[in-house]
Design a protein that fits this description.
This protein is mainly α. It has 2 domains: 98 residues, Orthogonal Bundle (Arc Repressor Mutant, subunit A), CATH 1.10.10.10; 107 residues, Orthogonal Bundle (Arc Repressor Mutant, subunit A). The protein contains 11 helices and 5 strands, in the order ααβββααββααααααα. Helix 3 packs across helix 4, helix 7 runs parallel beside helix 9 and helix 9 packs across helix 10.
Length: 251
Amino acid sequence: MSQGWIALHRQIWDNEYLWDDKPFARGQAWIDLIMLANHQDKEFIFNKQVVVIKRGQHVTSIRKLGERWGWSRTKVSDFLNSLQSASMVKIESDTKKTVITIVKYSFYQDLDSEKRHKKDTEVTQKSTNNNVNNDNKETKNKEDDDKESRERKPDEQLAKVMSRYMDIINSMASPAVTVSIQGYLDHMEADVVIDAFEVAAAENKRSWSYIEAILRNRKNDGIKNMADVAREKEEHQARKSRKTTGGNIFR
């Protein structure tokens, strides 16, 4: 029996050569389901409604999975039913959506938990050996609270950005787009990303490639907040004005 496991980053979706080849094999579809599942509880925008999904769950439909995997709806249904019969997933469906729960999600995705457990154990042992006083313990508790607050903020920002994306760009965001947006949020504020959506919408160019070009340029230019955006737009307008004025001189 195979033992051990590997960490698989969702950026594998960005490799068209590997991931866009269809139809999917059953093993590839299974891995795809694991990667699609939420790594923590959160609210999700589905058909412009807020749906709360748990860690290890994914909201989709038979049709969307069929399009994603290059399968017929019958093949998707048969595959999901076989996974459910093997107690690998739980399926809950209604007229609008299908909620898939990976039964042993923690078994596949608990690397972070192992690291946290190991870190907590090391900290506890060090505290015991060094007889750390109460002041140090209070300091650590405060740091943990601050860390938890910082970890919550990115999820809140992503939810805000994705809600706006679905409002003005596309009512459904692919996992690859969501992962890309999350990456840009590591470098700039949510309002900067949302502004890129609004720029694209105003120009009626709602493709992700166009939006990503805007975000990539902003990242490369070091634009992190709306003050930077305003300054960049002013400079762009000034360059256009100089170019126009220069053109009149040589007429």
